[in-house]
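Ticket #4471: structure export looks truncated?
Reporter: QA, pipeline team
Priority: medium

Steps to reproduce: submit the single chain below to the structure queue and open the exported record.
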Amino acid sequence: MRRNLLPLLMFMVLLSPLAIDIYLPSMPAMALEYGVSNSEVQSTLVLFLFAMGVGQILIGPLADRFGRKPVALFGIVLYGISSLLGAYSVEFEWLQIARVFQGLAACSTSIVVFSAVRDCYSRKESVSMYSYLNGAICVVPALAPTFGGLLALQFGWRSTFIFMALYAIFVLFLVGFRFPETRPLNTDSTGPLYRWSRYKPVIGDPHFMFYASCCMIAMASILCYVSYSPVWIIGHLG
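Actual output as written to the record:
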C-alpha cells in the first residue's frame, strides 16, 4: 500500500498550486471581460489563499473525526464544482465566491495528503516523502502558467477553470478507487470537534511559529510577484 501511495498523493497535492498558477496569464483578459481593475482580479488569488489558510483550522479536525478519505473526496468534488462555477460565472462576484470554495477544497486535499504521510510512514521516511511532494508542488509554477496561457489563447480564459474541473474528476476516480483510509485506529475522535487543546500545542511552540513565519514571509513574496507579474509583462511586453 505504501509503495503505491506516493503517486496518488502527488496527484492530490497538485490541486492547490494548479489553482494558483494556471490562470495567472489570463488575469488581464479577465479584468477586461468583467470590466474590473487588475487589482480586483488579483483579489481572486487573495481569496483563494485566505480560504486555504483558514480552512486548515476548520478541516483538520474533520479529517480526524470522519477519516482522511471522506474529507479528500468531499474536497475534490467541491474543487470540481467551484472550478465549473468559476468557468461559467457571469458576474465577477460569483468568480470570487468560486475561488473561496476552491481554496477550501484545495485545503482539504492538502491536509489529507500530509496527514497520510504522517499516518503511514516513520519520521525518517516522512522526510523523503515530503521532499517528493514539495518537488511535485514546485513543478507546477514552472509549467502551469505556460500551459494556462496556451489554453487561454486557444479557447479563452474560462478554459483554464474547465481544465481544473477535468483534473478534479481524474483525481476523484483515482482517490475513490485507489486511495486507502490511512487514519490510525487510535486517533482520538471524541469530544468537541473544535477545541482550544487541539491548537494550543502548535500555536504555543516558538520553534513552529518562527519557521512558520519565515515560510509565510517567503510565500507572500513569491505570491506578490506571481500575482502582479502577468499584468506587468502582458501590459508592457505584449
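Status: closed, not a bug. The export was complete when the record was re-opened. Leaving a note from the reviewer for reference: The mean pLDDT is 88.
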